[in-house]
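Work Package 3 (structural annotation) set out to generate three-dimensional models for the target panel prioritized at the project kickoff. During this period the team completed the workflow that converts sequence records into discrete structure tokens, so that structures can be stored uniformly alongside our sequence database. As a representative example, we reproduce one entry of 189 residues exactly as it appears in the project archive.
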Amino acid sequence: ELERAGYLEQPHTSAGRITTDKAYRYFVDKVVKQEPLEIAPREKHRIDESIQEKSRDPREVNKSIAQVLNELSDNLVITSIVDEDDFFKIGLKNLFEFPEFQEFDRMFRLTSFFEDVEQEFRRFREVQVFIGHESPFHNVSEEAIICAEYRLPNGFTGSVVMVGPTRMNYRRNLGLVNYTKNKVDELYE
């Protein structure tokens, strides 16, 4: 029934069933987003600490956000200052530890995205989740992406993109991005 409804698929005859993008979308919309996003107190403390250390320089705050979100999620994290050619990219090697990123074509597309992200970056006002084929990015169509925009010091606007496998821990990663966005917005309101 799940296969017929499009929530599971069998990529080839000898393979088992795998979860589809449609199933992950259902999970995110109907389960994850319906419950409060909670992160551990130590994670909140780590985020607070890393942001407040760099409280006046927008580049340093953005760099800190990329580093702390990468540390806490083990996913690829890219931050930018909107309308500036200023990016911090960290965590590509973490993705290569996941089995789904061992295929050469997928590694090539992801590294191409990592290198060319400046041309593909878009603005995302609210925290958004893109799963697989929903991706607005050209070279990233089999991964999950969490995006958000936030305030930075001196009137700048920052943007974050977290990229991971579609089987990522959505509740935790959405919690991390959401908490960071709210904390930075509150600091630089």
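The chain is about 40% helix and 20% strand.
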